[in-house]
Amino acid sequence: MAYSEKVIDHYENPRNVGSFDKNDPSVVTGMVGAPACGDVMKLQLKINDAGIIEDAKFKTYGCGSAIASSSLVTEWVKGKSIEEAAAIKNTDIAEELALPPVKIHCSILAEDAIKAALEEYKHKQAK
Amino acid sequence: MNYFELFNLPQGFDIDAAALAETYRELQRAVHPDKFAAASEQEKLLAVSRTAMVNDGFQTLKDPVRRAEHLLALKGVDIRHETQTVRDTGFLMQQMEWREALEDLAQARDPHREIDALYRSFSAFQTDVSARLRQLLQSDTEQDWHTAANEVRKLKFMAKLHQELERAEDNLLD
């Protein structure tokens, strides 16, 4: 299957790979998995007191499209408010990376990773 | 299509593999294209689609994960592998750790011992999941079937890990 140039670029030069210290109170983690292909994605967001995402890191085990989707998402969320980040849709990711229909689940995974991380944020705020 | 009925087997997670193989051979003979050499085009087409159905039924019932999916589909539960993501953090952490262990194999001092240990861990985990799945599939409540669907999803991840481990093992032998 042919990957788009953008997927190959993110796959070969993934942005923001790695982890933050999970004990840092400003860090939240979203873990999601896609049963279709066994992909696992961890997305961490560093959110400041004003509710702005200052930094993002990811670690993904999966195909090129899954890695590209998570890499793209870390770039997109930086500088965004949590409301803006929550509005990112899998269709935006799929369109930007020109994902074929069989790889749409990779973009769903990335969207759900943001949601999972933001849920943890809300959970932390509520405490 | 209920494949358990097609193969005349009791509908359940545990299956008589010998009976399945035996019925498969019988069904294959009955729909073999050679038998329809002199038949009309319509009958030939029908035989081809019957053959495809018998083959799909056999592959579905033979594989425990696909068999469980089929059982759930018959109960009206769609697994939706393509769109339904898994959020079980504990399970996903374990998946990440195992993937990291696979990555580290290349640098391991005694990779074959590590590989054996991973095979044992994977199979112990799969046995646990399968035991829970067996129980849940016997239940009459819809909630248990949805929990069963989650267990099936876990087995899909394990199947992927197994593939990756086999590939890592092959690479070491090269």
In brief, what are we looking at here?
The complex is a heterodimer of chains A (127) and B (174). Chain A is built from five helices and three strands.
Characterization of this structure:
The complex is a heterodimer of chains A (127) and B (174). With 127 residues, chain A is α+β, with helices and mostly antiparallel strands. Chain A contains 5 helices and 3 strands, in the order αβββαααα. Chain A has one domain (5-121): Sufe protein. Chain: A (Alpha-Beta Complex), CATH 3.90.1010. Chain B folds into 2 domains: 3-62, Helix Hairpins (Orthogonal Bundle), CATH 1.10.287.110; 89-173, Monooxygenase (Up-down Bundle). Chain B has helices at 3-6, 17-31, 41-62, 64-74, 89-104, 111-138, 142-173. Chain B has 7 helices and no strands. The A-B interface holds A 31-38, 40, 42, 59, 61, 104-105, 108-109, 112, 116 and B 79, 81-89, 91-93, 95-96, 99, 152-153, 156-157, 159-161.
Order of helices and strands of chain B: HHHHHHH
CATH topology of the largest domain in chain B: Monooxygenase
CATH class designation of the largest domain in chain B: Mainly Alpha
Provide a count of the helices of chain A: 5
Beta-strand content of chain A: 15-25%
Main pleated-sheet profile of chain A: 3 strands, antiparallel
What structural class results from the helix and strand content of chain A?
alpha+beta
Any idea how many domains of chain B? 2
Radius of gyration of chain B, in Å, reads 20 Å
Biggest chain pair interface:
A-B, 18 and 23 residues
Helix/sheet category of chain B: mainly alpha
Count of β-strands of chain A = 3
Helical run tally of chain B:
7
Distance between the termini of chain B: 45 Å
* Backbone shape of chain A: globular
- N- to C-terminal distance of chain A: 47 Å
CATH topology descriptor of chain A: Sufe protein. Chain: A
pLDDT < 50 runs, ≥5 residues of chain A? none
In the CATH classification, which architecture of the largest domain in chain B applies? Up-down Bundle
Pfam families (chain A): NifU_N
Family (chain A): Belongs to the NifU family.
Protein name (chain A): Iron-sulfur cluster assembly scaffold protein IscU
GO molecular function (chain A): iron ion binding; iron-sulfur cluster binding
